[in-house]
Design a protein that fits this description.
heterodimer; A: alpha/beta; five-stranded parallel sheet; 36% helix; B: alpha/beta; Rossmann fold; 7 strands; globular
């Protein structure tokens, strides 16, 4: 039991803390094509190899925008991108997880498995409280008040400052209706509608392969 | 390093990174240091630097003190500064103490302000009432996550005013045995007791 529970006497709170895997990752409790950790991609040892040292892979962070559970995994942009640039990938995106789950899973990944070659992020709804019931009137009211309270911009700025300190190329796929999950000069913003998976994969891979060719020239 | 600062860089008691420390962060002996994070209690509001528990513990352990206390700051500031610190250095501290602020506090953006500002019951009471459970869940996740990610054992400290009952045996309670110069924060005796309890915990 957490020491922080000393703040509260109602045991209801205990039920609302999101569960994590043994290694501390937040995971999807429902969905198709999920691996044994509840993430929509291959198993970790299939990505990193049995010795967990394979480094030619990218991480995917975000929410529904990276999952598209309504489609087969083979039609989602992380999968297509992986095929086109010939990199493995691990998808840490969490349904309705927003900024909080992206941050949590990223730092847990860096701690457990080290640095990927690059990170792709996309969030439909970055400003999302985690582990609460959005049918609850208090949560709905808090959502309305959060912007005026400077809460979400504060969260985004803190996350952005952390990302500025990570020496990994980061790409944000930002659709017309998406919310910024982080905003800083070190993040490459790709203005693409994430719902068009083929277009995202095509555009991102073209840019990536062009940069690779330029490096080799 | 991009830390959440305590502020008041103009004061002679604060270093150029904005923390109430006698040394610059660049001058810390990373082979021999103690790391403290928290709120005003860690910053030592109401007492002299040499009276606060972080300075007392560091003196006994004969190591440099890194005090990243942020007055008014919440668990988000603690989390940010700890993650930033360990991105900056792989050198482990001799001891790591976190004084956990109230979970309702957070760092907010204010229009026209360059730096983020601490927010709490004094600034956004209506939001806090409705967001109570959401903020609690976030804090709980951060607590467990930092304990998992930290390369060294975290010694937990909490100001006893935050809770109604002190039944958590592993938590070190920072009591108001006396009062500081602001007549609100704990005074020198309180800091001394907390320092002794931290040193006891280190020996356990």
């Amino acid at each position: 039991m957490s020491q922080l529970l000393a703040h509260r006497s109602d045991s209801k709170v205990l039920l609302d803390i999101p569960k994590t895997t043994k290694e501390g990752f937040l995971f999807n409790e429902a969905g198709t094509d999920l691996n044994s950790n509840g993430h929509r991609c291959k198993e970790i040892n299939e990505v990193l190899g049995n010795d967990l040292s394979f480094s030619k892979y990218f991480l995917v962070l975000g929410d529904n925008a990276c999952l598209h559970m309504h489609k087969p995994i083979e039609e989602t942009w992380p999968y297509l991108l992986s095929k086109q640039i010939n990199y493995q990938y691990y998808n840490l995106a969490i349904m309705h997880g927003g900024l909080e789950s992206a941050r949590h899973n990223l730092f847990n990944w860096l701690h457990v498995y080290g640095k990927p070659k690059m990170i792709y992020m996309s969030c439909e709804w970055a400003n999302n409280f985690i582990g609460v019931d959005y049918d609850d009137k208090d949560v709905q009211e808090a959502s309305k008040l959060a912007d005026d309270a400077g809460y979400w911009i504060g969260r985004r700025r803190l996350f952005s400052r952390l990302l500025e300190q990570i020496d990994i190329p980061i790409y944000l796929i930002l659709g017309p209706n998406d919310e910024y999950i982080a905003r800083t000069d070190s993040i490459n913003v790709l203005e693409l509608d994430h719902s068009d998976d083929e277009n995202v994969a095509q555009n991102v891979s073209e840019g990536f392969l062009q940069a690779q060719r330029a490096l080799l020239a | 390093m991009k830390l959440v600062e305590a502020g008041n860089k103009a004061s002679t008691e604060y270093n150029s990174s904005g923390f109430r420390m006698t040394k610059e962060l660049d001058n810390i002996d990373l082979d021999n240091y103690c790391l403290f994070l928290g709120s005003s209690h860690t910053e030592g509001v109401g007492v002299e630097i040499e009276q606060r528990y972080s300075t007392l513990v560091s003196a006994v352990l004969k190591c440099d003190e890194v005090n990243l206390g942020v007055g008014g700051g919440g668990i988000d500031a603690v989390e940010h500064n700890l993650l930033s610190w360990f991105m900056h250095t792989e050198k482990q501290p001799k001891c790591l103490v976190i004084e956990w602020p109230a979970y309702q506090r957070y760092m907010r953006n204010m229009h026209g302000q360059k730096n983020l500002c601490p927010a709490g019951a004094w600034s956004n009471p209506k939001f806090l009432v409705h967001a109570d459970q959401a903020l609690y869940v976030k804090a709980e996740l951060a607590y467990h996550n930092l304990h998992r990610l930290s390369p060294v054992r975290i010694i937990d400290v909490m100001h006893s005013k935050i809770v109604l009952q002190n039944w958590q045996s592993l938590m070190i309670w920072h009591h108001n045995k006396d009062y500081g110069t602001d007549n609100s924060h704990p005074g020198p005796k309180s800091h001394l007791e907390t320092a002794e309890n931290i040193l006891d915990a280190l020996n356990r």
